């Protein structure tokens, strides 16, 4: 049986510069070389092995809902929520209660918020 590891997530974005700035501001992702092509797609390192690829699509009709999201975990959950507040980035729990975290049945805390293109992200403390 084959095994797989997560490699990257790619998102279509209206303005790639604004998207890069958002992910660098919120997550401090380092920009890395796009080794696949000479396109305007920009790559950010999530960690040493995983990446976020931001593909410029200024004319794209980006439709999102909270059930389609990607999640990142941090051991410093409370500090991250405070950081979102400092950045004035609105967040909510799963039920859309503003400025509230959610505690799942398994005890994991999580918050949801959107990037500049409306993509949903979850940050939780499942480390």
From TrEMBL:
Q: Which InterPro entries match?
A: Fosfomycin_Res_Enzymes (IPR051332), Glyas_Bleomycin-R_OHBP_Dase (IPR029068), Glyas_Fos-R_dOase_dom (IPR004360), VOC_core (IPR037523)
Domain of life of the organism in this record? Bacteria
State a single Gene Ontology molecular function: dioxygenase activity
The question of whether Lipid biosynthesis is a record keyword is answered with no
Q: Which residues form a coiled coil?
A: none
Which Pfam families does the protein's record reference? Glyoxalase
Record SUPFAM superfamilies: Glyoxalase/Bleomycin resistance protein/Dihydroxybiphenyl dioxygenase
Keyword field: Dioxygenase, Lyase, Oxidoreductase
The residues covered by the VOC domain are 5-126
Q: Which protein, by its recorded name, is this?
A: Catechol 2,3-dioxygenase-like lactoylglutathione lyase family enzyme
Species in which this protein is naturally found: Kordia periserrulae
């Amino acid at each position: 049986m084959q095994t797989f590891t997560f490699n990257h997530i790619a998102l279509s974005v209206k303005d790639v510069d604004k998207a890069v700035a958002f992910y660098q501001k919120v997550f401090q992702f380092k920009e890395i070389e796009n080794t696949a092509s000479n396109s305007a797609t920009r790559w950010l390192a999530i960690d040493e092995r995983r990446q976020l690829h931001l593909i410029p699509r200024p004319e794209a009709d980006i439709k999102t809902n909270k059930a389609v999201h990607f999640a990142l975990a941090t051991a410093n959950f409370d500090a991250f929520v405070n950081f979102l507040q400092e950045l004035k980035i609105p967040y909510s729990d799963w039920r859309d209660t503003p400025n509230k975290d959610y505690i799942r049945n398994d005890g994991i805390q999580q918050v949801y918020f959107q990037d500049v293109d409306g993509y949903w992200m979850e940050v939780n403390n499942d480390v």
